[in-house]
Amino acid sequence: MTAAGSPNFETDASASDATSAAGHRRRSPLALLLVAVVAIVAVGVIAFSVGRLSTLGDPTPTSDSAEAGFARDMQTHHNQGVELSFIVRDLTDDDAVRLLAYDIATTQSAQSGMMQGWLNVWKLPAHGTDPEMTWMMQPTLKGDGHNHGSGESAHKPGEPMPGLATPEQITELKGLSGVAAERMFLELMIAHHQGAIEMGEAVLDRSTNSTVRTFANGVVKSQQSEIDLMNSMLEERPAP
Predict the structure, then answer these.
(1) How many domains does the chain have?
(2) Whole-number Å distance between alpha carbons of 53 and 45
(3) In a domain, 10, yes or no
């Protein structure tokens, strides 16, 4: 879900793409970014095609299911990623940052639409009656209340989603330019991706739906790959 010469979006990186931090430093930022872009496109295509096919064989989720809650909340989460990306695009002339921002914006926008498509196929409303994040409090497939690899979730119904930037942080970003804007965008987006990974792992612990699981696995892998990339980009932009 990428455009040449303009900033691009979010996907599944293979094990060979997940190079070490030392390997990242030996490769140019643009080369690393192109690897991430290719991975993003692959995940988007796979998640979409598998999702279209597997929906037919899965039980239809209910409105209060983990699958429906994830689809609704991840749309909100992705939409902020799009917002942050378009903000930084206008605050910097750096090609690598603009390419990354455009990639994130276009990918997450497309994925947000795909998740709305799930709700349409499932004949469920776009908005549930429960507070946001309620689905993360549901028992896991193992029958407990714990998330994959992270212990009990610290997020309660109605509280902000993990990794979301605050209104104050968004206002601060809008007031920056150049390297300062690049650094804050990267820091916010790293936290944003970490939150998306937490949400992806949470739904994997609670869903057997093949469409949702394919997508969530792609989110976890692709966002971790982009976190590695963004950490390397931060290292190249030391704080003043």
Answers:
(1) 1
(2) 12
(3) no
**For position 48, which CATH number holds?**
1.20.1260.10
**Cα–Cα distance measured from residue 142 to residue 55, given in angstroms and rounded to the nearest whole number:** 23
Share of the chain above pLDDT 90, in %: 64
What's the predicted TM-score (pTM) here?
A: 0.76
Stretch (H or E) spanning 146: strand 146-147
Beta bridge partners of 146: 152
Short-list 207, 195, 208, CA closest to 154: 195
Sign of the Cα pseudo-torsion (195, 165, 114, 140, in order): positive
Predicted local confidence at residue 143, as pLDDT: 78
Residue 185: which domain range?
A: 21-235
DSSP string, 148-167: TTTEE----TTSPPTTPPPH
pLDDT tens, residue by residue, 165-221: 999 999 999 999 999 999 999 999 999 999 999 999 999 999 999 999 999 999 999
Mind listing the pLDDT tens digit for each residue in 15-35?
334 333 334 434 455 555 554
Q: What's the angle, vertex CA 232, arms to CA 226 and CA 236, rounded to 5?
A: 140
- CA 88, CA 188: separation in Å to the nearest integer? 11
Distance between start and end Cα atoms, the chain:
35
DSSP string, 17-53: T---HHHHHHS-HHHHHHHHHHHHHHHHHHHHHHHHH
User: Which residues are 56's β-sheet partners?
Assistant: none
